[in-house]
Amino acid sequence: MYILETHHLVKRYAGHTALQDVSISVPEGQIYGLLGPNGAGKTSLIRIITQIIAPDEGSVIFMGQRLSPTHHQKMGYLPEERGLYRKLKVGEQLLFFAQLRGMKESQARRQIRSWLERLGLMDWANRPVEELSKGMQQKVQFIATVIHQPALIILDEPFSGFDPVNADLIRDEILQLRQQGSTIIFSTHRMDTVEELCDYVGFINKSRKVLEGKKKDIKNAYRTYTFVVDTDAPIQFVENGYQILQTQQCEGGIYRHIIKIHQGTNNGLLQACMQQANIISFNEQIPDMHEIFIRLVATHQN
Predict the structure, then answer these.
(1) Of 220, 244, 263, which residue is a domain's last?
(2) How far apart are CA 172 and CA 221, in angstroms?
């Protein structure tokens, strides 16, 4: 089941087309990575979903209904351009945002206390935002995004400004939110984070969607059937279908071979190697999301 679908979205700005016929489907309860280079159209898509702007053409379906202002309370949006009231105290600010999303004061105060404790901000509850470090302000804005337990959470570069320790803390909270049933759209340029967190991926380039699907299916589609085989002796193929691209002698008398399968199977390659040497390790070079991202952008460059 899809919690969010966009159908043939088009958005133009003074002669520039930011989105052209963009249709995506976001599965419920999953983390969906929205990827693309700068200027691809990701921000325009997010702003349409969050009803900051309207599309020129197309439609958005949220939880089975055409998107409407009533859906604001079921979404949480953390924009890349952060914005907090600097003079307002942390606790007061979070209460304000929670009540804007329809929470009762008593419920909001319980949630605020819980989140401040979890993110190590309890001692700062009565301090104005301007006294907090950038990383601490990021935590406050993250809390403001998720405090009302939205069904759909949209995070635009959520780890920007965090040190590694706090980035790990927020990552764990994102995973916990998914575990509790939230759906998360995750827009980022950090492919290592996509590799670690995302279940589904959508690529946008030059205003168009160029690829969408399960992350594991996309990675499988971009396999090159190239293997790294470490042995105790050099090997040389005579079988058709297997090509040694490179052989390198490493420390400890280990020979590392880069081998590509043109025709055959993984087991066939392994058996062919075993006939010539003892196998120390045998691993396929699966492309990571960074490699796939670069290849997609290069393919659609023109």
Answers:
(1) 220
(2) 29
Whether residues 106 and 253 fall in one domain: no
Token digits for 62?
């949220």
Using the structure block, give the residue that is written with the tokens 């002698």: 249
The answer to whether the CB of 201 falls within 8 A of the CB of 289 is: yes
List pLDDT tens digits, range 104-149.
999 999 999 999 999 999 999 999 999 998 889 999 999 999 999 9
CB 14 within 8 A of CB 1: no
Q: Which domain holds residue 79?
A: 2-220
Closest CA to 41 of 203, 272, 220, 256: 203
Q: Is residue 298 part of a domain?
A: no
Distance CA 12, CA 71 (A): 24
- Say if CB 3 and CB 152 are below 8 A apart: yes
For residue 188, give both structure tokens.
Answer: 């980022």
H or E stretch covering 163: none
Cβ density class 198-219: b for 16+ within 10 Å, e for less: bbbbbbbbbbbbbbbeebeebb
- Domain final residue, candidates 220, 240, 275: 220
pTM equals 0.87
